[in-house]
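TEACHING EXERCISE
Course module: macromolecular assemblies
Task: Read the component lines below, then compare them to the predicted structure of the full complex.
Student: A.B.
Group: 4
Components provided:
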Amino acid sequence: MDFNLAALKLMVAQLKEAIPHHTPPSSFTLGSGGVLFQRAWLQGLLISIDNNNDNDNDKDNATTSLPRFLLDDGTGIIELVPINNQFSQINWQLGMYVMVVGCYVNRSDEHELPFIRIHKIVDLSAFPDREAMWYLEVIEAYRMFYGPCIEE
Amino acid sequence: MASPVISSGALIILEDLKPSSPHYQDGASLRVTGKLEEYNVETAVAVIADGNATLKIDTQYVMLQYRLGSIYQFIGELRLESDIEPILKARVGSNVDGIDLNLYRQSLKLLKEFQLSN
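Instructor-supplied answer key:
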């Protein structure tokens, strides 16, 4: 993960339209010629929590099973895979409104959901107005920063 | 892990959930927000309201403390059957007391405009 590239504030619907890019590896652009990114910042509701994950496919994951989540942000659903087990101690609940930041991974198998390998997840449930503000933040970020890049 | 058998809950204001709305379809996945006006413990059916609009919610799968006057948000599928009032079969829900519903409605409106223009 290249932490020099900013995490973009996006909705899942925008992520799904992102175009894969080669350098740096595993990066994407928002629209052709648009902003380059690897990481995204999303906010939404946890609609599924899987604590007993027996993921045989994840061969490079040497740690014990990590919780996996599904996030619904109103425009799409995305899977969240923690980068390590630092989040396992927290009592995650269905319906929690969370913000997450992590690396966007678009699986080649189109039957699989894309996922975010999250390095940050924060429960914002105590602040319900954060949801309304989030939609405004996403719109503002696009209008001020990401959109103008594409139009150039 | 998952294949996309569940759809994202479309963000909707209760007042916009009318028969003319594209979201007014049997099986449509919606996210709704409103104040709890009625709750039947036996059937687990709640009625939430926002402005002049109300919606019945089947809450049997959503274990929360239901308090009249509190504001809740639910994601679930709309069930429409002839002769019966529409009801949302909720999968997930939460108490969002403290939310500014005016701000929320305005934000959703702006989001919808943004999505249409991009």
